[in-house]
Structure formats: structure tokens, C-alpha cells
Amino acid sequence: MLTTFWTRLLVAGALLATGATCALRSAPDAVLVIRKGGTYTGHYQSTSSGQACIRIATTEPVVLEGCELRGPGLLIDARGGGANLTVRNCRGYGEQPTTDNQARGRFLEINDGTHLLAERNYLDHTSGLLVYRWQGAGTAAQTITVRANQARNIDGRYRNGGGALVSFLQLNQVHGVEHIDISWNEIVNMPNHSLVEDNINLHNSSGTARSPLLVHHNYIQGAYPLPATAPKFTGSGITTDGDASSALTTTAYVEAYQNTVVSTCNAGMNIAAGHHNYFHHNRIITSGLLPDGSRLPATYAGTAVFNGYEKPGTVFFGNRMHSNTIGFVSWGRHSPYPNRHDLSTDACAPCTGTRHLPGPITLQTEAQEHASWQTQLRQAGQQVGLITSLASN
């Protein structure tokens, strides 16, 4: 049950809605149910893993601006189909699950949407964003944009041990959608305080030859097993994924460039499914060390191109890696230097023009990568995370 303080904020948030009749109605599955389009702000807190903070129950355009969301469950539920949603300058805090064998809720989940803009939000200990299928036409007004968000500790841990391997962002079965843009996001995960698999996972999702699905200028730090010293892990920074059986439904026409991927166990960036995926001019840096200087045993290779689902040549083809800068420590291996595995030795035939950083690759090397990305951010006139003037409302 909400405290008096949060109840007051809930009512205030409803009264601040503009462009629509007040659309607040109590429901067991959400603190706030939005049934009319408009702009909404305010503070909303759930207390159960089964209760969302906000549920979108309209296909009219909805803007969530300057909201603060807290809870153990889904923070923004747009799973009803047809949502036209903008989430800007909001803060989302995932809290300890109230049931066993369940991860903290996602910041946002949208199914069969028509428009999504998630921009300049702050995520803390959530299970990230999931976009499942798509109804929008792929025009500039009916596409997916995830830009300039700041995430800390994407967290799939269960309260009773173990957890789900979640993502900062997963697109799942989003087929042939143009104008998708995933850019300038800053994602930082700390060992033993997070549980993320692929920070950005593109699963059976695609752009088009004319308008590739763009993933660019993101800073991604951290993907670790639990505990971080475990010997095996399957995570990465950015991965194309999916078990689709046709060229039309597999991951395709993805262009990933100018991303910086740091300290990710197993891999930095992989093309593991699909066709016509092109990764170029990225930086993949891993020292193989925890902050206390101890070794990470689960590191494998900086990058690879491999047919992870063993699909025929009509489904997996035309993929390439070019001009990436890599310094990836993998203890006991030798590619191209001792204790390095920049390019997977058995799965990187299409990887050309690689620049191998000279050793040693250290924790200081990793820190310099973050500083360099922040310089790029300023030079591009970008701002990541909350806009202070709005966040203080």
C-alpha cells in the first residue's frame, strides 16, 4: 500500500497531466493506468513485483516527462499493443523483487508499438528495455529511438540467488523497420552489483537495405557472470542474435559503428545471427581485471562472426567487421599477443582492417576509454541522462 507521501505525489502527477482528461484509475496491476493521450509527470511507486508503476492503456500519443518511478516490478508497461509512447527525462529505480526466482522489473516493455522515443532517462538497477514486435510503419514518426539514456547496473538478479540474463535493450522480432536509432547511451554495470547478458541484443530484428538499424556512439561498460569470478559467461556488449529460419525474419541490416565497449566478459561485439550486418569503427577494450586487480576468468574474445544457430547460407550470410580497434585480454590465449584474443581465432574470417592496441591493456586503459567517449559526447553537442532543469520539477 502506498504511503501518504507517495499518494500525494500520485495525485499531483495525475493533476499535472496535460492535453487530456485526467486518466487515473486504480488497478491491481498498475499504480497509474493511462487511458487517454497527453503528457504525464509525477512520482509513482509500486510495492510488488506483480504491479507496474504505469500502464499504458491507449493508442493515443502519450508522453511521460520528468517522472520518477520506483518498484520491484515493471516500471512502464506498454504491452497492450499499439502504444505511441515518448519517455523523456524520467528516473527509474528497480527495487528488490518481492517474489523468488524473479528479476527486478524492466524500465520499459512495449509490445506491438507504433512509436517509441526513450530519451535522456536515468535507469538504476532495472532490467532495461524490451521492444517485442512492431506495428508502426517505420516512418520517422513510427519507429524506435533509444537515445542519450544513462543506465547503471542492469540487474537480473533474483532475491534468492542466481538470476535472469537481461539486457539494457533488446529488440525481439522487430522485422524490417526503418529509421531505428540506438545512440549515445551510457551503460555502466559494476561486477557483483549487476547481472546483464548482451547489453544490446538484437534478436530476430532488422532494418532494411535502404535504412539499416543503427547502433552508434554508445558507451557500454561491464558484462559479468555472478559472481564475477565465475569461469563461464555468455554476455557481451552488442550482439546480433536469433534463431529465425528465413532471411526475412532473422536479424539483418544492422550497422553498428563508433561504439565503445569496455570490460565485457565473454565478448565485446558479436555477429552471431543474420545477414548484411556490418560492425565498423568500434572500440573494444577489456583488461581482464576486476577493480581490485584480480583476474576475470570468463573473458573469451573481443569479437567474432559466427553462425550461432547453424542456419543455412540463405539465412546467415553477408556479414562483416571492418576497422575496429581492439585490445581484449583473455588469459592464456595468444591472438595476436600473449594473453590476448582480439579476434576469435576460429570465427572471424570476415574481420578486416582491425587495429590491435599494443599492450598492456590495464584498468587505466579502460578508464581512458570512458574519458575519451565523454569528450566525443561534448564535441558532438550531446547530453546524456537527465536534463537537470526538468528533473528538478
Features:
3 helices, eleven-stranded parallel β-sheet, disordered N terminus, 33 strands, 8% helix, mainly beta, single chain, 393 residues
In short:
By secondary structure, this protein is mainly beta. The protein has helices at 4-15, 363-379, 388-391; strands at 30-34, 38-40, 43-45, 52-56, 61-65, 68-71, 76-78, 84-88, 91-94, 108-113, 115-119, 122-124, 129-134, 144-147, 150-152, 169-172, 181-183, 186-188, 198-203, 213-216, 219-223, 236-241, 254-257, 260-264, 266-271, 278-280, 283-286, 299-305, 320-322, 325-335, 338-341, 351-352, 355-356.
What separation lies between the terminal Cα atoms? 25 Å
Number of strands: 33
Query: What is the general shape?
Result: globular
What class, by secondary structure content?
Answer: mainly beta
Please tally the helical runs, counting DSSP H or I stretches of 4 or more residues.
Answer: 3
Unreliable sequence segments: 1-27
Mean pLDDT: 92
Radius of gyration: 21 Å
The main pleated sheet reads as: 11 strands, parallel
3D architecture notes:
- With 393 residues, the protein is mainly beta.
- Helices cover 8% and strands 37% of the residues.
- The chain contains 3 helices and 33 strands.
- The protein has an 11-stranded parallel β-sheet with strand order 2-5-8-11-14-17-20-23-26-29-32, with no helix packed on it. The chain has an 11-stranded parallel β-sheet with strand order 3-6-9-12-15-18-21-24-27-30-33. Strands 1-4-7-10-13-16-19-22-25-28 form a 10-stranded parallel β-sheet, with no helix packed on it.
- The two termini are 25 Å apart.
